[in-house]
Write a structure and sequence with these properties.
This is GH3 auxin-responsive promoter family protein. This protein has about 500 residues and is an alpha/beta fold. It contains 17 helices and 19 strands. It starts with a helix and ends with a helix.
Length: about 500
């Protein structure tokens, strides 16, 4: 038995045994109170009367009644623009050192989200909790002596006035504890590389020098990195290079769409642990092995609210209507889609993060990500969420024995009639009409609203299959490769026209 690994594992076990076991509901009440106490003398806190909210008999109810919802553009225009000018105490005490750049999945222009010292500490603390949760997965002691490959954005942050800017993965990696640096790969020098292709090429060259036990990063980019390493060393699977690889933690993207193609890169199964790290904070992570759901981090600087994901509450641009009701953790129900609202130690308040979630276990505060508010396709009443799309595509993978790790679609008008046009990323040749019919039937069976739409305004389904690499090149063209970049799943007609032109150009190059 590895002595050092055994000591680390024992220390983690002991730490887990003495951690306070407050209920998630109780923890959330305390988090909100602490957030309000800390920010009551900021410009935002004074404007919205945090002191009076704290005096209310029901602080959660008063908070909901007194403060409106904010999306990024409202928060930035009304408040964070002052922070970016260097003014102190705007939405959180002091001035943040960092701004996280997030183009997300919906645009070229980067959002700039403040990252305070308190948020850095919260992310670090949650990261330690996640490591502690590994003991639930019955991982052998020698795992704790292996190295961890964290594939993220560049840690070479850009100076803008008095701030440092970069993606949250780069900010987090630049603040890793000193004691962890010996385990962290690809190491500081390679992690600072801005060019993603050069970074991955350098990782591939050095791969045999490292004893990797765990991987961490977004599935699509991790898969490309692994393929590059295998190609460079002429390996049949990644375990020929890293025989001790046992764990993969994802980065805020559901793993299921990539599971089939990812597993083909392995010699044997590994433990996959989902995490939910966004530019706004480390929101959740998988805490135990007998589920694929993630446990919300309810006691560490983030207060959550939940708006039922219904068409009448969602505006066309994906924002929330003012009268949309918000529920606390004590009021939610399982298997219902909710729009996630957060308030945090970075000075985000009743903030629409853009994701939808559903609870799989309310008592344990365990969730799954079900989609994005902007990726809700309801042009002709079809009410398709990303989650329903993903479920249908997993059925297509089984039915036709293919892999579909990437997709996008739009509602398009052809001769004054609406069609759903899907682009599926697959390396397998398949009859487009056959899979279109199967996909259509699957969605009809699973979704009554879709079935009604298909009998009326939605006239049909078109499918175009393309190489999955085209999706990655699209991301490279519109944003950049690697990091937190994710493919948009639903496009409007205007964006879809640009996409189709791009696909044609890539096919002509091929």
């Amino acid at each position: 038995m590895a002595i050092l690994g055994s000591i680390i594992k024992t220390a983690i076990d002991l730490r887990g045994a003495i951690i306070s076991k407050k209920s998630p509901v109780e923890s959330q009440r305390e988090v909100l109170k602490n957030l309000l106490e800390n920010a009551k003398n900021t410009a935002f806190g004074k404007y919205y009367g945090f002191t009076k909210i704290l005096e209310a008999q029901d602080i959660q109810k008063s908070f909901t009644e007194k403060i409106p919802y904010f999306d990024y553009h409202q928060m930035e225009k009304e408040w964070w623009c002052k922070t970016q000018e260097g003014l102190q105490d705007i939405t959180w005490p002091g001035c943040p050192k960092y701004f996280a750049l997030s183009s997300g999945t919906t645009g070229k222009t980067s959002k700039k989200i403040p990252v305070t010292n308190e948020m850095i500490e919260a992310i670090r603390t949650t990261g330690i909790k996640q490591v502690g949760a590994l003991t639930n997965f019955n991982i052998p002691s020698d795992f704790y002596e292996k190295e961890i490959m964290m594939l993220g954005s560049s840690t070479d942050l850009e100076e803008q006035n008095q701030f440092l800017e970069g993606e949250i993965s780069g900010i987090s990696a630049s603040n890793i504890p000193f004691w962890f640096r010996g385990y962290y790969k690809p190491g500081e020098e390679i992690a600072q590389m801005e060019d993603w292709d050069r970074k991955v090429e350098t990782i591939a060259k050095n791969a045999r020098n490292w004893d990797i036990g765990a991987l961490s990063g977004i599935p699509s980019w991790m898969e490309l990195m692994i393929k590059k390493v295998m190609e460079y060393h002429d390996a049949k699977n990644i375990h020929e290079i890293w025989p001790n690889l046992q764990v993969y933690t994802t980065g805020g993207v559901a793993f299921q769409p990539y599971e089939k193609s990812f597993n083909q890169l392995l010699a044997h199964p590994i433990i996959v642990i989902d995490t939910y790290l966004a530019s706004e904070g480390f929101l959740a992570f998988q805490n135990r092995p007998d589920t694929t759901s993630m446990k919300l981090v309810t006691d560490n600087g983030i207060y959550f609210e939940f708006v039922p994901f219904k068409p009448e509450y969602i505006n066309e641009d994906g924002s929330l209507s003012k009268d949309a009701p918000a529920l606390t953790l004590a009021e939610v129900e399982p298997d219902v889609d909710y729009v996630l609202i957060i308030s945090t130690v970075s000075g985000t308040w009743r903030y629409l993060i853009g994701d939808t979630i559903a609870f799989t276990d309310v008592e344990k505060a365990e969730i799954k990500i079900t989609g994005r508010t902007k990726f809700f396709l309801n042009v002709v009443g079809s009410q398709l969420s990303v989650n329903k799309m993903e479920v249908a595509l997993r059925q297509m993978e089984e039915k036709f024995d293919i892999k579909i790790p990437e997709f996008t679609l739009a509602a398009v008008k052809i001769d004054d009639e609406f069609y759903h046009h899907w682009y599926l990323g697959t390396e397998t040749k398949i009859n487009s009409e056959e899979i279109a019919n199967a996909l259509d039937n699957s969605l009809k069976e699973a979704n009554k609203n879709y079935e009604v739409a298909r009998s009326k305004a939605l006239k049909g389904v078109k499918v175009t299959t393309i190489n999955p690499d085209i999706f990655h090149e699209w991301s490279a063209k519109n944003k950049k490769k690697g990091g937190q970049v994710k493919m948009e799943k639903v496009m409007d007609e205007e964006k879809f026209e640009v996409w189709e032109t791009f696909v044609k150009s890539q096919k002509s190059l091929g």
